[in-house]
Amino acid sequence: METFKLLSRGGVKFNKKRFKADMELFEETEIKSSSNHSSVNPSQATLPAELDFFKYAEGGNPKRRQSDGANEVSDVARVSSESSPPKKKTKLDDEPQAGPSTQPHRVTLKGSNPPKCAESFEDASSRYNIPSRILQNLSENGFHSPTAIQSYGLPVLLEKRDLAAISPTGTGKTLSYLIPIMSHLNAPISSSDSEAGKGARALVVAPTRELAHQIHNECLKLAEGRKWRMVLFSKASANTLADKAVRDKVDVIVSTPLRLVASLKNGSLELNNVRHLVLDEADRLLDSEFLEQTKEIIAACSREDVQKAVFSATLPAGAEQVAMSNLRDPIRIVVGLKDTPLPLISQSLTYVNDDASKLPTLLHFLARPYNPPIVIFTSTQPRASSLAEQLTLNNIPNVDCLHAGMTKKERDDTVSRMRRGECWIMISTEVMARGMDFKGVRGVINYDFPTSVQSYIHRIGRTGRAGREGAAVTYFTNDDAPYLKPISNVIMQSGSTVPEWIVKLPKPSKMKRKLMGKIKRDETVTKDGSIGRSQARRRKDMVQGSKRRKQVEDGKSPSGGKEMGSDTE
Ligand SMILES: Nc1ncnc2c1ncn2[C@@H]1O[C@H](COP(=O)(O)OP(=O)(O)OP(=O)(O)O)[C@@H](O)[C@H]1O
């Protein structure tokens, strides 16, 4: 791992000449989506156009619009219109678009007496007393107008109502719950005159450590200038908080479920003062892997008046039912079409003959000009490591890898490199699929087919964030073909088209859907193909070269025995 990281910093170009013959064998077949993006003059709005849902043109997928609306007993708030010229679709190797595109969106509200949306942060502040310091922090961080989920979500949470919020990836869900939490906190619990009881008053739960870390950072930005104690629950902070006197003075906790439940179980944490509980990536937290822990956390938040909110870009029916059963008289907000990515992510499917052909296909793509950074998803940790190694061996610069099998330090370092723009290609597993906000990600490649529609939506949502355009490519082999249909439906729902033969594919059975993405794949990403052999030769050369250099450093001749500088050949 360390070796390839060192090698990957070289900034060397892919040797096209060397692999020319191999590359020609593997010309990729691309099936492009045909989403028509349109643009607005960015100077007209302080908010990126995709986030400015109130200026969107009327429209969308008419079929979906009708059927969706028919089932709602709620207010349907359609966004107003602004027409704009069509714009060419974004490809992974395109230059970044000068201005963001617009697509139709709508906001659907369901529930009893939903409050009126907030037109601006100031509007929300005048109605609900958002402290001026929070407004100042929003402005200083470049957040001048609310996104759709913020406009509709803020009043609901500020009125202390329970909320289920479904809004596409990258549309600002984090601030939708952090602003109300901070507005409700008032004086820090540590201040002597605080009436706030003892212990954390707000808890945010997220499925991965990286996401919890990111949310904690957003908390710190928003709380700048206030003396609230915001804790990212980790092994170290759990030890510190084992002291009751310390934990009584904490205002907000952000955590993953595992860590929290461990502390609840050993009695070193109580959540009986929590008034605001947020489940971010709720469908993940309510799936079978986390459900028991999530239930324990909900039960531990024992105050009768605890306000609960669930957020996600996807909420399948089963998870929604569980979520709703835990909420009291909730408001449900859906931005855009449920379980549908934003149309500003151009999506395409690329056929590759078999698993062994994926690496040459990827190398072929990387041999051409492309816009970094890109995120590549594989199905397993060994495959992520193996792919990172293969790219490095092929002289692709600035490759990094992030998966749950790495140490905390390795993971933190990788995320930092990504944030500093030092990583051009991030190879990861599902651990990075949800919530991670690296603003400039230009594209996503699903090297291995996603395991579910939700996984697909979250993975591709690492690009096209905060109003930027992005591109997503999904490789599929013959083995994946039976599972193309659900993904192609998502692509079509978000306004793109897919080839007719895919549209005509039969719907996979329930049984088959369960097997989606669970195809047995090798732990390494290359087999004994011609590329594999040339790489093996290259690897051998590198190992021998490294041995020779070591011998030279040790003062030995590479051929053995003779002094450095001797003529050994
Ligand atoms: N009002 C705003 N104006 C401009 N940018 C915003 C605004 N609110 C949030 N953003 C930016 O949008 C980006 C996406 O926000 P966030 O990570 O909260 O999205 P999300 O909806 O939670 O996405 P995901 O579903 O992937 O978790 C962030 O970079 C954030 O800083």
TrEMBL record:
Domain spans labelled DEAD-box RNA helicase Q: 123-151
Catalytic activity: ATP + H2O = ADP + phosphate + H(+)
Cross-referenced Pfam families: DEAD, Helicase_C
Bias type Basic residues, positions: 535-550
Renumbered residue ranges of the record's region Disordered: 58-121, 520-569
Family to which this protein belongs: Belongs to the DEAD box helicase family. DDX52/ROK1 subfamily.
Name of the protein in question: RNA helicase
UniProt source species: Schizopora paradoxa
Organism phylogeny: Eukaryota, Fungi, Dikarya, Basidiomycota, Agaricomycotina
